Description:
Layout: H1 2-11, H2 14-23, H3 29-35, E1 42-47, E2 51-60, E3 63-68, E4 70-75, E5 79-84, H4 87-109, H5 117-140, E6 145-149
Amino acid sequence: MRRLSLALLLLMPLPALAQAASSAPFNDPAWLRVQQLKPGSSLHIKTTHGTVRCSFRAATPDALTCVKKTDVVLQRTEIKTIGVSHRGRSTLVGLAIGAGGGAVGGASAGHSGDFVGKGGLATLFGVAFGIIGAGIGAATDFTGGTVYRAP
């Protein structure tokens, strides 16, 4: 009798857990962030069928609509990840990193008595590596962030 009571006590929360698990996707904070994105945001979406790059239009609790020449509707169940592009920010960060590194490298490579000098080499290297860094930042979009990852 004691074992039966213990078993019933342990099994009683199961229906409540099953109901919570079935409604959990609609209360997912990550999906709420997707629903709050600004229309026109540039998205990089990985799905079960491939990858889609498009502009955000709207999101409902079970689907996302974005524009890529025409409207594309993706069901939430087929979406693996959603990333937001920050290409402009990546370009500026790449520029800053390249220019800073180039300026330090140029200043350390130059000598005061040289034709160009420390300041000239720092400027030359800073500009050159800044341009390279900006190109890398724009091409890789390394500051872009993931706003949704499927559970």
